[in-house]
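Hi, here's the filled form for the chain we discussed.

Project: internal
Contact: R.S.
Residues: 307
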Amino acid sequence: MTEPMSRAGRLGLLYGVSAVVFWSFGASFVYLGAREAGTWFFVAVGSACAALLQFGVRRAQHGELRTALFVPWRLWVGPVFCFVLYGLAWPLALASSTPERVFGVSLVNYLWPVLTVVCSVFLVPGVRLSFRTVAALALALGGLALANARDLAGLFSNVSDAQGSGFGAVVPYLLSLVAAITWAVYSALLARWRSWAQGYVTSPLGFLIIGLIGFGILAVEPVARGHIGGQGLMWTLLYGAGPLAAGYLLWELALARARVQTLSIIAAGTPVLSTALLCLFLRKMPGIELVLAAILVSAGVVLSRKG
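And the returned structure, exactly as it came back:
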């Protein structure tokens, strides 16, 4: 009995690590693809691609789509709504960033694991705020402050700067914070309703809605579409098939086989890996403050989930 369980656990860890790798490419694909093809084209096509792939896999594995299309109303007003809001806020945050600020904006999103624990205190019965959670949040916020120290100094010293240190410069950070909060609420609600919600999946439906919103905006405002060249389309499809479709599917498979505590610690590597990939794709040598910031955010995630 021990051996089969051990194999399942190892397979779950492999799925989890694979999901983290796919997710870590997400920020780079969004930044490169949305800025070239246009944010709404990128969101619409990437999400539609993810929805079609996930519906296809769901049909092949389970022989039905009812549990992916017709979900209870609680999932609609909670997880599905949060999923859609996250799927819109995250690419908009990165696409509206500058090459210098995109690293800090990306790291703000990775507050979500710590915020999930905080939200669970209010949404999940039996969960209480601990010293470990407070310390984890302090570590993560310290990392973000370190990553964005120069921008914060510029914002507060000259908020009317025409070069973009005013409110327009704050928008990407706010959008990324909205993404982090909505994903934390999404995760906490799924944890609260796990006993009856585990028979349904929300990501394919969420991707479908995000795609429809994107296509709707393109229909009303065609100028929202950028120059759809070969590279822009490539980044868009890679994002839909990799970080979205494959990443979420692999994480779902991992959760069914491995301990969530272990997977959460594995996921803590995402900020560091994502930042490293951003530096690689943007051909930027990371400074020591950026490296330390990513490590602090990851350390906050580990501390919030440990035990």
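Let me know if anything looks off before we file it.
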